[in-house]
Design a protein that fits this description.
With 122 residues, this protein is an all-beta fold. Helix content is 0%, strand content 50%. It has strands at 2-5, 8-11, 16-22, 30-37, 44-49, 56-58, 66-71, 76-81, 90-98, 111-112, 116-121. Strands 2, 4, 5, 6, 9, 10 and 11 form a seven-stranded mixed sheet that branches. A four-stranded antiparallel sheet has the order 1-3-8-7, with no helix packed on it.
């Protein structure tokens, strides 16, 4: 079971660090992904990281501003959000899948957290 946290209200240009912890089982053998869903929009891929942390992938909107990382010893993944914009406002979800290839497709992730809301004011 995944638990996402760290969301909140921040001004444009600000930063937040999201966390995703597993309450049961291990994340060390799973690839992790972060997705987001803005009101009235589809859930979209933001960033992904392989089980061992050596490979990551970002959406175009996330590149250069967001950083995905993980600490397998703490069974936790992170998403650092910097230089936030109002259009980044969304519910952010973490997800996990077995450690095969890194994917950006929502349907390939069987395990999901409950989401954490990020609101960026202008």
């Amino acid at each position: 079971q995944l638990q996402a946290s760290g969301g909140g209200l921040v001004q444009a240009g600000g930063s937040l660090r999201l966390s995703c912890a597993a309450s049961r089982g291990t994340l060390s053998n799973k690839n992790m992904g972060w997705f987001r869903q803005a009101p009235g929009k589809e859930r979209e891929f933001v960033a992904g990281i392989k089980y061992n942390g050596v490979e990551s992938e970002y959406s175009d909107s996330a590149k250069g501003r967001f950083t995905i990382s993980r600490d397998n010893a703490k069974n936790t993944a992170f998403l650092m959000l910097t230089n936030l914009r109002p259009e980044d406002t969304a519910v952010y979800y973490c997800a996990a899948r077995n450690a095969i290839r890194l994917t950006t497709t929502r349907d390939t992730y069987p395990w999901w957290g409950q989401g954490t809301l990020v609101t960026v004011s202008s």
